[in-house]
Specification:
Strand content: 25-35%
Order of helices and strands: EEEEHHEHHEEEEEEEEH
Distance between the termini: 35 Å
Number of domains: 1
Mean pLDDT: 81
Shape: globular
Strand order of the largest sheet: 7-8-9-6-12
Radius of gyration: 17 Å
Low-confidence stretches: none
Helix content: 10-25%
Number of strands: 13
Length: about 240
């Protein structure tokens, strides 16, 4: 799921601690175990999926990792860096690819991305249509070095809230070191509630796809642990 080059952030003798995943059917439902891996330590960055063919894994996906790593490394370490338009497109494509691989962990009927969108990611130099990618700066202490969370959303309230409906929008949030990544599909958030106040989300999450201007990371405001939780669990629609 996550590239081997992230191992360079480990100090000598260190390893990653892998924790079991969990899923909640609704906000009020109790967390349920998800995934078939136990808690363990490893020098590898995470679990693997078996739905990516060898040709993709060793060619265009490997090439994407090679080109994205130098751009991502300073931000993962918390160091400022500028991003040209071309670099924003490259990073956005990497983020989308990573979200797509994460999506392969769930049963086919529950996956976010369609076959057409996955084919787009392989063939095109940009993320699929209706994708948004934004970057934040994490300064908290509670998140693991690598975290991944997914939130199913609705653009409109289902006609009958009592009947389980398939979400029509989604958000995947990654935390990698000091870098926070939000990949949205078909519905970006416009605001976050922080200590009871609504703020412009662009103050916390810098949009890099779609984008018309060069950017400089980090955004003006950083995410602490409380703000990150607000991002993980956006408000339900009124």
């Amino acid at each position: 799921m996550f590239p081997k080059w992230l191992r360079k952030f480990l100090d000598r003798g260190e390893s990653f601690t892998h924790l079991p995943g969990y899923v909640q059917e609704s906000r009020k439902a109790p967390p349920m175990p998800w995934g078939n891996w136990p808690e363990h330590r490893s020098k590898n960055t995470g679990i693997t999926v078996d739905t990516v063919c060898r040709s993709c894994n060793h060619h265009w996906m490997s090439d994407l990792e090679t080109h994205a790593s130098p751009l991502l490394t300073p931000m993962i370490e918390g160091n400022p860096r500028g991003l040209t338009l071309d670099q924003q497109v490259l990073v956005s494509r990497w983020m989308t690819k990573t979200a797509m691989v994460w999506d392969q962990l769930v049963p086919p009927d529950d996956r976010i991305y369609t076959t057409e969108e996955c084919r787009w990611a392989k063939a095109k130099p940009t993320p699929p249509p209706d994708t948004t990618v934004r970057l934040g700066h994490y300064i908290g202490t509670e998140a693991a070095f690598i975290e991944a969370k997914h939130e199913s959303l609705f653009r409109e309230v289902p006609a009958d809230p009592q009947v389980r409906a398939r979400p029509d929008a989604h958000r995947t949030v990654f935390v990698i070191g000091k870098l926070v990544v939000e990949v949205g599909v078909r519905r970006p958030a416009n605001s976050l509630t922080v200590t009871g106040q609504d703020i412009d989300v662009d103050e916390l999450l810098m949009p890099i796809w779609p984008s018309l201007n060069a950017r400089r990371w980090p955004p003006r405001l950083a995410l602490n642990d409380m703000t990150l939780e607000s991002l993980h669990r956006p408000d339900e629609p009124d």
